[in-house]
Amino acid sequence: MRLTAVLLLSFFCGIGTASATTYPLPQGNNNVVGEIRYLSARHEDTLVDIARQQDIGYDALRAANPGVDPWLPKAGTQILLPSEYILPATPRRGIVINLPAMRLFYYPPHGNTVDTFPIGIGREGWNTPTGTTTITAKIRDPSWTPPASIRAEHAKNGDPLPAVVGPGPDNPLGQFALRLGWKGYLLHGTNKPYGVGMRVSHGCIRLMPNDIEALFAQVAPGTVVQVVDQPWLWGERDGSYFLQVFPPLHENPDTREQEQAFRRWLQEQIPTGMQISWVKALQVFREADGVPTLIAVRDPTTDTD
């Protein structure tokens, strides 16, 4: 059983979509925000609908509910909402994007909160780059000028694109875009919100329409953007320690090598003198369901002033 706060929800598709959640910024060594929640599905619900309504990426919802039929979850089925997050191991400033988690974290300047949003990222062959850049421009009602490579791909698939797609419902950039310092890359909305939380883009980072509107209103040109590839996260919350594992972006055919790399990484995270169950840790690693799992609790009798 996952020892995190649980809230049982009723779910109503007609209410409208949720938007980004704001959490108090954890203090000290703490780096876990949010809480695991559950909802009871209705007979007409699908995981695609639930993901959008709850502002959770589709792939994340699927991974957290491996035994649930994504198209027919059945009325009364309890759906785990993976709405607890370990913050990426980065400086807490500006925008931080963890690609394996398909999640964006925004740290407002001079603030003590963090906002988080699900994102869609580049698919295989069109990988979203990692590194540090900045927001260079804010564009309302952007036009899209697809590069020659994307136009050729669409033409090959029998779906030719015009040289320029103007603002409107057919524009894949949605209503708001934030231009990055990397040429050709944007944070933007979408006219296909059900794809958020999947690897579906040509490298740009997609957000739900409500989420990009909220982010657009807050950030300014010059905001730092850090894009990281952290499939393994170690979290602490008031003496409880959590492990969160996502599927890697690039599958390593040598699973033994991958497991050894995970073991070395985890050994570096464990506080001196703390004992953990390696059997449990490796189970979390192999399941890679993206849900923070309690892995150890600090013994208060060993604390010193």
Question: Describe it for me?
Answer:
By secondary structure, the chain is an alpha+beta fold. 19% of the residues lie in helices and 28% in strands. The two termini are 33 Å apart. The N terminus is likely disordered. The chain folds into 3 domains: 80 residues, Roll (Membrane-bound Lytic Murein Transglycosylase D, Chain A), CATH 3.10.350; 135 residues, L,D-transpeptidase catalytic domain-like, CATH 2.40.440; 71 residues, no CATH class. The chain is built from 6 helices and 19 strands. It is globular. A 9-stranded mixed β-sheet has the order 2-9-8-7-16-11-12-13-15, with helices on one face. Strands 1-4-5 form a 3-stranded mixed β-sheet, with no helix packed on it. The chain has a 3-stranded antiparallel β-sheet with strand order 17-18-19.
Give the low-pLDDT segments.
1-16
Count of distinct structural domains: 3
Strand content: 25-35%
Largest beta-sheet details: 9 strands, mixed
Mean pLDDT: 86
**Overall spatial form:** globular
Q: What is the number of beta strands?
A: 19
Helix vs. strand class: alpha+beta
Q: What is the CATH T-level topology of the largest domain?
A: L,D-transpeptidase catalytic domain-like
Order of helices and strands: EEEEHHEEEEEEEHEEEEHEEEHHE
End-to-end separation in angstroms reads 33 Å
Strand order of the largest sheet: 2-9-8-7-16-11-12-13-15
